[in-house]
Design a protein that fits this description.
mainly beta, 6-stranded antiparallel beta barrel, 0% helix
Amino acid sequence: MRELPHGDAVTIVRPGPSTQDEYGNDKPGPPVEIPVPGCAIAPRGGAGASTELTDARDTVITGLILYAPYGTEIRATDRVRVGGELYEVVGLPGSFRSPFTGSAGPVVAALELVTG
């Protein structure tokens, strides 16, 4: 899949290389932001589209599916900024290349946003 000409741009926010504090302990470095143009974004279908939890507080969990151009590197530890909101990557993203035609499909990643 090539970049979609009418697709949306997202930003992958990846943990930066670790650094050390004054005591020699590892600490996370500043995040690295990677823009990815030409993506498709869709709500997760069915019951997984969003969930409300109202036990001790109002919590809403919203799920999206990100279709990024083939070859985009998305890691399970990444976060993805979509429309100003920062989503967590859920599980391992996957991609597909047809064994019949050799055509490449998108990199597909499940995203989740927890609010409240």
